[in-house]
Amino acid sequence: MVQYIFTPWRDQQELLTVRRQLYPTYHDTTATAPTTAEDALQRKQEAVARVSMWMQRGNCPHLVESTALLEAAILSDAQATSEPSLAGSSSSYAVRAAYSAAFSRFVTGLMDSHQDKARKMSMYAVAKSVGLPATFVELRHQATHEQLPSLTRLRAAAEKALEWIWEYYWRHLDEAGAQAQAPPSGSGPAAVAASGDMKTPVLEAARESAARVCRALLMDLFTTEDEETEERVRGELKRRRAREVYEVTMDISEQTRSAKVMRRATAFLRELVVEGGLHAVPQAERVAGTPLVEGEGRGKVRDIEAYRRMLEEDKRELEMVEADVRASEEREEDGGAGAAVEEGPAWSRYDRKGWVPKPIGVLNSTAARAMHIQSIPMWVGSSNNYAYLVVDDKSKDAVIIDPANPPEVAPVLKKAIQDGKINLTAIVNTHHHWDHAGGNKKLLAELGLSKLPIIGGKDCEAVTKTPGNGEGFKIGSINVKGLYTPCHTQDSICWFMEDNGDKVVFTGDTLFHGGCGKFFEGTGAEMHKALNETLASLPDETRVFPGHEYTKSNVKFALSVLQSEPVKALSSFADANKETQGKFTIGDEKKHNVFMRPQDPEIQKATGSTDPIDIMTKLREMKNNFSIERSTNAPVLHHIHTCALTMPPKRRPPTAAATGSGAKQPRQSKLAKEHNITAHEEADIKEAFGLFSEPMEGEKEGVIPIGDVRRAMTALGVPPSSKEELSEFTSILDPDDEGFATYPSFVAICALKLHARDREDVQEEVDDAFKLFTGTGGEGTGSEGEKITLAHLKRVAAVLKEEVDEGVLRDMILEANGGAGVGVGVGREEFEGVMRRAGVWR
To answer: Which residues are CB-contacts of 382 (< 8 A; sequence separation ≥ 6)?
Structure first.
């Protein structure tokens, strides 16, 4: 029974015609060679069109398609160059895009077709196995993931790619044989069958059986340590066809994972080539026109001289392969799979100057990254915090870093835990501030993980473990090290993590992209050490994950100090991206972060100092005082740190009866309702704000300089209670160090102070009222043991000359204490609750 092979071309001759059109200068014959450049161009256009038609039919080999795509890009380039109307920048970009798409498709498709499905290999490893220059893989990555390469580089790469495809595929098509066997006309299955491109199941089965026997003998030869067995196997192999032995040996050397087997297979191949093992080919196999070797990528060799030339080429190749194998075996003996890979001659021959691959993807099977980082934004639009979920993908072990706002973090963690994606092992904090560590207890309660460790500085909420400087722990296979960086707070810790070459650092409020944290608890000397010694000593490729999204405001200040290209690039990136966490490295920060460039002459000039510590101190002062006038960009609307404002329960507005007037009360604004203050209270706040406000576009009420916040709050009658409280308020009002506070954020802060003052006043009123019922006036009123009893209520009713049924009084007690019993009485807190529900107090 005939097995048909469907091809997109009518016959082999059509394929060879396309080859001549695509590669007109690669043939010795001149009978069909183009006579002019225009003729060659026309023929290439015809070939590209024909391959395009083949693609529509299907079953077109990848390298045929790739040749046509590369030629099409070259043709487009030639057209754009020759026609002045197309010579603009947009046309140049389109040509670069065409080259990049063709080249990327060529490399990616080739790599995919040679990928080991059982053992995933990197693209570099696959390229090495097929002899593809490593520079092709590098260029493909740049074209796909980075800026498009230059036109000059793409042109050269396209030419080299066409040369490589010729050597790998087109050169081995046997034109003479194909012409002899080609059918006179027709297409489709019949033509293919007539051309000899067919196999019968019987013949195929026989060949496979013979190959299995030969493979078993060769494996015995490559693994045995017994001399008699080796001699016996060699005798049996001599009786087999040389072509079969050669091809099976090649298959074994390419497929085996054992360095020992590969080395012995390589030595045996050399023996076959050098010592004449293949020269003892039966005479029947030497007849001209009978192929001696027919393998993928080799085509058909029809005479012994051509065969010898091929063997000499194989000899040189085998010498290079053997060098690689010996090095591989030495690595297995010395260090195993984790040893570094050194490229041998078989790889370096494609780039005589040597080539060092960039860390793209996985370079070997043992270097697969296991660390996965998920950013969880919190309080977006106000403090713009980040919590980070770090997961070891292999073990599913995970930690959550700075989960300050459980309402935004807990749902993410719960879903991941329920889906079986993570095994949460700890909470990790960078420092003790509430907007980083203030959610620890609540998150544990939300997740029902009361015994989960909390790792961080000694002052962090509910902390259970504080590693020493340089000490750490592991998250699955991820190594974690704590780096002490005191200044913003004295317990600040930056967490450096590493996994198979992937390096990251979580810096909290110590280091931001383009900036650093305020010196709340430290000095310029401490921040200089934290940034320019501790963090600067990390590898340059370490990615930085800060605690806030402050990049846009940081770069405004940086531009006022240093107009360098890295700073301008950071500014452009910040303008185009809302989130920048993890997008820059320690090496990047050394270039665009003014706080990490004390050696820069421009920064020394701006600060008037050459001393690094003095520069750090002055830069921070300049940043703190960076005012509205010095900011060249439109202001950003700032709100309040939501986590700082734990809003009190909803308060009922005072009724007309409570105010003693039936006049219509002013309506609350939306802002007043959000912060649970009355319209009168908001009016007072607005009046105090207006005493110091300055106009600003986009801000209806204007803004006030951050230095006037204390005076405005004092004018309202709610001054900060201490310098520490004022410092906290200013950091909330101006998280990005813009130098001003907006009206909404000022209202939020003042509302907090008003609520605190109200609570103090209310407590005094509650105590006084409770005394009226209990009849006591001494210290300890409202203590745990004191209760309002039925007798107290009867006495108050008598004083007020009210006739109240005892049953009503009993019901009042039961309602107040939740039905605990009349004899139990009503405590102070229960009394306060009754009065609040009645609207007496808000």
So the answer is: 638, 639, 640, 641, 642, 735
Residue at a domain's end among 232, 248, 272: 272
pTM: 0.41
Nearest Cα to 672, choosing from 662, 684, 689?
684
Alpha helix (H) ranges present in 299-447?
304-334, 345-348, 406-418, 434-437, 440-447
Q: Per the residue annotation, which of 432, 488, 675, 755 is the catalytic one?
A: 488
Q: Into how many domains does the chain fold?
A: 4
The dihedral through the CA atoms of 163, 164, 165, 168 has a sign that is positive
Residue 479 host element (H or E):
strand 478-484
Spot the catalytic one: 392, 431, 588, 592. 431
Residue 431 annotated to the active site: yes
Which residues, other chains included, contact 380 with Cβ-Cβ below 8 Å and sequence gap of 6+? none
Catalytic status, residue 548: yes
Q: At a CB cut-off of 8 Å and minimum separation 6, what does 37 contact?
A: none
Residue located via tokens 């009084």? 809
Four-CA torsion 21, 25, 27, 28, nearest 10 degrees: 140
Share of the chain above pLDDT 70, in %: 73
The domain of 723 spans 670-757
Active-site residue 145, yes or no? no
Among the listed residues 789, 798, 788, 794, the one whose alpha carbon sits nearest the alpha carbon of residue 828: 788
Separation between Cα atoms, residue 475 and residue 453, nearest integer Å: 13
| pLDDT tens digit sequence for 278-308 | 444 333 333 333 333 333 333 333 344 454 5
Active site residue 592: no
On the question of pLDDT at 624 being above 90, the answer is: no
Q: Is 465 helix (H, G, I), strand (E, B) or coil?
A: strand
Instruction: Round to whole Å and give the CA distance between 250 and 266.
Output: 8
Q: C-alpha 131: how far from its chain's center?
A: 31
Residue 31 in any domain: the answer is yes
pLDDT (0 to 100) of residue 307: 47
> Which residues does 306 contact at the CB level (< 8 Å), separation at least 6?
none
Question: Catalytic residue at 436?
Answer: yes
In the set 548, 638, 675, 792, the catalytic residue is: 548
Q: Could you read off the pLDDT of 714-765 as tens digits, one per residue?
A: 888 888 888 888 888 888 888 877 788 899 989 988 988 887 776 666 677 7
For residue 399, the surrounding DSSP H or E stretch is strand 397-401
From 11, 77, 402, 435, active-site residue:
435
Q: Cα-atom radius of gyration of the chain, to the nearest Å?
A: 40
**Whether residues 603 and 741 fall in one domain:** no
pLDDT at 324: 54
Q: What is the pLDDT of residue 27?
A: 52
The structure tokens listed for 771 are 């005394």
Strand, helix or coil for residue 533: helix
Query: The CATH number of the domain where 715 resides is what?
Result: 1.10.238.10
In a shared domain, residues 265 and 402: no
Residue pair 430/402 in contact (Cβ under 8 Å)? The answer is yes
| Distance separating alpha carbons of residues 203 and 13, to the nearest angstrom | 26
Q: Are residues 157 and 250 in the same domain?
A: no
Q: Which of 90-104, 471-485, 654-668, 680-694 has the lowest mean pLDDT?
A: 654-668
Helix axes 828-837, 806-816, angle to 10 degrees: 100
Active-site position among 491, 509, 588, 736: 509
Say which of 432, 433, 513, 528 is annotated catalytic: 433
3-class SS at 278? coil
Cα angle for residues 597, 600, 603 (degrees, 5° grid): 85
CA atoms lying within 13 Å on the CB side of residue 405: 21
Residue 527 lies in a domain: yes
- pLDDT per residue as tens digits for the range 209-250: 677 778 888 888 888 888 888 888 888 888 777 777 888 887
Same domain, 400 and 530: yes
Does the active-site annotation cover 680? no
Q: Are strands 502-508 and 493-499 parallel, antiparallel or unpaired?
A: antiparallel
